[in-house]
From TrEMBL, chain B:
<keyword id="KW-0735">Signal-anchor</keyword>
<dbReference type="Pfam" id="PF02485">
    <property type="entry name" value="Branch"/>
</dbReference>
<keyword id="KW-0256">Endoplasmic reticulum</keyword>
<keyword id="KW-0812">Transmembrane</keyword>
<protein>
    <recommendedName>
        <fullName>Peptide O-xylosyltransferase</fullName>
    </recommendedName>
</protein>
<feature type="domain" description="DUF5927">
    <location>
        <begin position="266"/>
        <end position="565"/>
    </location>
</feature>
<keyword id="KW-0325">Glycoprotein</keyword>
<keyword id="KW-0333">Golgi apparatus</keyword>
<dbReference type="InterPro" id="IPR045971">
    <property type="entry name" value="DUF5927"/>
</dbReference>
<keyword id="KW-1015">Disulfide bond</keyword>
<keyword id="KW-0472">Membrane</keyword>
<dbReference type="InterPro" id="IPR043538">
    <property type="entry name" value="XYLT"/>
</dbReference>
<dbReference type="InterPro" id="IPR003406">
    <property type="entry name" value="Glyco_trans_14"/>
</dbReference>
<dbReference type="Pfam" id="PF19349">
    <property type="entry name" value="DUF5927"/>
</dbReference>
<keyword id="KW-0808">Transferase</keyword>
<keyword id="KW-0328">Glycosyltransferase</keyword>
<keyword id="KW-0479">Metal-binding</keyword>
Length: 310, 565
């Protein structure tokens, strides 16, 4: 990993930091940065995995971004987590850290009226060190590639639909995290093999300490006490969602490229499944799809919870 | 005559300074206590920022730790300073650095001037409080607490347990009746000086130094000795959650706070810029002399505590995944399972849908697909009819069906042919109404065009599954509303049980059943059962079904609807 731009000296003691890996996301970056700056993120730490679309230069020019580059294999690096774990340890220790992909948009209770440090201050008073946010796959109505995404645009202007109530949860006995599957990807691409359907459980917001490590993407961490982000006695703990702007044009091109690289989880079976299905049946929308309004709607639907934060 | 504020500060000193300035410039003297752990740098910065205000002074600094005497000591010395320096003060108001005045000072002084001899301090006896931390109430006053509850919880608990076992009891000083309450009070000069100048103060102080959380009991108890008129409530709006932590106010609470008509609120998030700028702006006031009314805020916070402790029944999600039997509602709403009915009656779901205000599905757990009502391929929440997905997590499928259709009762058919994974779950779910006609599964078999050996094997398999299910439904763990008839029993008099079930589903509907569902042709069923028996398979779940049911058939002949009553 080589440094492209190191502005980590600017990081203040209370700053909340975003960590992300990316590859060829240039067109998405302006909105991504704007979204998280508005939320109150003060510094971004990116690992660029061999972009050739100008992503790296664009980020290196941003005053609040530090950028590293590597051309090594995403797959060998435990799907990028080795790079991020190293950065988290070095720069994240003592900070609230938000580890996400460039197509993931964090929402939490009151995110429309309270900045993210209202949440982290509150978590601090309860000595809560990790915060869950389930991945919520968003999709447009009609073919995914029908409306091209324009730089700077809110991706959820078109991809504003989601599945509200077809999620399946079980508990991972070894790591103690919840394993959540379901949503449009499961029902469209994995109906014959649900075991292989993608995991939607994520714990992206963590008050990082030395010794913490993400083990499998941001689905779970060690020590495993950090995965106890749910109540087992009937109550609800606070949680958020990661709105997933994956189904955005140009998807078909992206799927082809990613299949070519074969750098994804479990032999890229997810991308293979898309390639098989997206061509012939591109509409994820159905009449029961829910149109996104705001976080309160997600709360009422039971996808996230305010818990005792009022 | 005016009111003087004591402010207990340890963080967000800039906000405390803002509030102190607001009060002081409005004409109320302020004494600030700054925690001794605050750095000298921050402390002197605070002093400099308020140096232009004559009526703001700083009291002797104590290192304040939660639940310890230091908080009382700090309040005592600040109160003494207030009473000594500011003769014009009639009421002394204890506030914190994260308090925010919601109404102009003049409204508070008018309010207090109208009640010149009233002490506002929440002060209740230990038997009346339900909010004590750690289940310790009167024992706060009778045990010793040398260990920190926050840092040495195990030692703390063990030592309490030990004292209980050996029957240790501290003696409460004569004349004191222990009272508890919020530490944010507003006392009159008379009462406060009586407490501070009491000849027995040394005795009381020595005693309270070893009481647990004395800041919630020292003034609350001693006030009762001297006060002429105690209003047992705090003028400060502050709400605690189930862990004893104060709820925090943010910008989006602005309207709620404004309408509460409370004088002071805590705790305010230090970065709630809009709250500070709005409430500290000059001319902010209601002009009417309203009584504080925090009911709306109370509701908001008690709802949030309930969400955290009890949650929404029947919801399974990323931050609520209850252990078995801790669900507080295995499902979110009542639902009905009809087992065997679709085998005995033709188009039973169609008939049922006419009589109940509910969504009537076919066999949701059929082996081929989930038979949603109306033959739909998808259901609320984007559930699909895929049997593979459903069987991958049958419980999630069921709880999702019920959760996604909140507000509408769900009914579905079942049979031993269907997925049986949920049998324990539904049997132990108080929301489930399970009606069983046992043995009805054999009716379709009796009309099947298939080798009898194959039919017999299938009959044996289904009977085994039904027996397993019935065993569950007859166990002592059942919480569902379960009714079981054998097919022989049921056909004797089908209308009465149907009426009972339907009345239970829609209790307010007074509609009587006017039309019976159409029963399938039972001719030859008795013989079929006899054939099974002859072939060595004992039918166990059909009840006493006669070999020749011809006589019975006259009463329930198909195609002859009849009226009940």
């Amino acid at each position: 990993m080589a440094v492209v731009a190191d502005r980590t000296g600017q990081i203040g003691g209370d700053d909340i930091l975003v960590f992300a890996t990316l590859r060829n996301e240039r067109v998405r970056l302006p909105y991504f940065l704007r979204y998280y700056r508005n939320m109150g993120i003060r510094h971004f730490l990116f690992v660029d995995n061999g972009s050739d679309d100008g992503s790296r230069d664009y980020l290196a020019d941003q005053e609040d971004c530090s950028v590293w580059v590597t051309n090594a294999s995403y797959k060998v690096a435990n799907f990028g987590m080795d790079w991020l774990n190293w950065l988290l340890r070095k720069y994240g220790t003592g900070h609230w850290t938000l580890t996400i992909d460039p197509d993931e948009f964090f929402v939490y209770p009151f995110s429309d009226t309270r900045p993210i440090n209202a949440l982290t201050d509150w978590l601090d008073t309860y000595d809560i060190r990790s915060f869950p946010a389930m991945l919520l796959d968003m999709y447009p109505k009609g073919p995914i590639d029908a409306v091209p995404y324009v730089e700077g645009q809110n991706p959820f202007e078109h991809a504003c639909w989601f599945d509200a109530g077809n999620y399946m949860i079980s508990r991972n006995q070894k790591m103690h995290n919840l394993w959540i599957q379901g949503g449009p990807r499961t029902r469209m691409f994995f109906a014959d093999d649900p075991l292989a359907a993608p995991s939607l459980n994520k714990i992206p917001l963590v008050k990082w300490q030395r010794g913490f490590v993400y083990t499998s993407s941001t689905h779970m961490l060690l020590p495993r006490g950090l995965n106890h982000t749910y109540d087992t006695g009937g109550g609800e703990m606070v949680s958020g969602c990661l709105m997933h702007a994956k189904f955005l044009s140009p998807l078909t091109a992206k799927v082809e490229e990613e299949l070519d690289r074969a750098q994804h989880y479990a032999g890229s079976r997810e991308y293979r499944a898309y390639a098989q299905t997206v061509g012939k049946q591109p509409d994820l929308w159905c009449k029961w799809s829910e149109k996104y309004i705001n976080w309160r709607q997600l709360e009422i639907l039971g996808l996230m919870s305010k818990g005792n934060w009022a | 005559m005016t009111v003087g504020f004591i402010m207990m500060c340890h963080t967000a000193l800039d906000r405390a300074a803002q509030v102190a300035r607001y009060w002081a410039t409005s004409g109320a003297p302020v004494v600030i206590h700054v925690d001794a752990r605050v750095s000298e740098h921050d402390y002197s910065a605070l002093g400099r920022s308020l140096a232009d205000l004559e009526d703001v002074s700083f009291s002797r600094r104590y290192k304040c730790e939660w639940g310890t005497w230091s908080l009382v000591a700090a309040a005592q010395s600040a109160a003494e300073q207030m009473l000594d320096r500011h003769r014009e003060v009639r009421h002394v108001y204890l506030a914190s650095g994260s308090c925010l005045p919601l109404r102009p000072l003049s409204e508070l002084t008018d309010y207090l001037a109208a009640r010149p001899y009233t002490d506002f301090i929440e002060s209740v006896t230990t038997t009346e409080v339900g909010w004590t931390v750690g289940g310790i109430d009167i024992e706060r006053f009778t045990l010793r607490f040398p260990f920190s509850w926050k840092k040495q919880r195990r030692l703390f608990d063990r030592y309490v347990e030990f004292q209980r076992r050996v029957g240790f009891k501290r003696r409460i000083p004569h004349g004191l009746v222990p009272h508890l309450g919020s530490q944010w009070w507003c006392l009159t000069r008379q009462t406060l000086s009586a407490i501070l100048q009491d000849p027995d103060r040394d005795l009381y102080d020595r005693y309270f130094k070893r009481v647990w959380i004395p800041d919630e009991s020292y003034f609350q108890t001693l006030t009762r000795l001297y006060a002429t008129s105690v209003e047992s409530r705090s003028l400060t709006l502050t709400k605690f959650d189930f862990q004893g932590k104060p709820h925090i106010f943010y910008d989006d609470h602005l309207q709620l706070l404004r309408r509460s008509d409370c004088f002071v609120a805590r705790k305010i998030w230090p970065k709630a810029e809009r709250l500070y700028s709005t409430f500290l702006a000059p001319g902010n006031g209601s002009s009417v002399m309203a009584e504080p009314n925090p009911a709306k805020i109370d509701r908001l916070f008690s709802k949030s505590i309930e969400r955290r402790t009890k949650g929404r029944p029947g919801l399974y999600m990323q931050s609520r995944f209850p252990k078995k039997d801790h669900e507080n509602g295995k499902t979110s709403a009542p639902y009905s399972i009809f087992h065997g009915f679709s085998d005995l009656f033709e188009n039973f779901d169609g008939w049922l849908a006419k009589y109940v205000g509910a969504r009537v599905h076919g066999h949701l757990f059929a082996p081929e697909r989930a038979e949603f009502a109306g033959g739909e391929e998808m259901f609320n929440g984007c559930l699909t009819d895929s049997a593979v997905l459903r069987d991958y997590n049958a419980r999630a499928f069921l709880t999702n069906v019920i959760w996604n259709s909140r507000g509408e009762r769900q009914c579905f058919m079942s049979s031993p042919r269907d997925n049986q994974d949920n049998n324990w779950f539904t049997a132990t779910d108080p929301n489930a109404q399970i009606s069983v006609i046992s043995g009805a599964w054999a009716l379709p078999l009796s009309r099947m065009n298939e080798n009898f050996a194959t039919i017999r094997r299938e009959a044996a398999r289904l009977q085994k599954r039904e027996l397993d299910h019935l065993e569950i439904l007859r166990s002592m763990y059942v919480k569902a509303r379960v009714r079981i008839w054998s097919i022989a029993e049921f056909i004797e008099n089908p209308m009465e049980p149907l009426q009972t079930i339907i009345d239970e589903i829609s209790p307010r509907s007074t509609r009587r059943l006017t039309e019976a569902p159409q029963m399938v042709d039972l001719a030859g069923f008795g013989q079929f059962l006899q054939n099974l028996k002859n072939q060595g398979m004992q039918p166990l779940v059909m009840g006493d079904f006669p070999l020749d049911e011809g006589a019975r058939q006259t009463a329930t002949r198909r195609g002859r609807p009849y009226l009940v009553k």
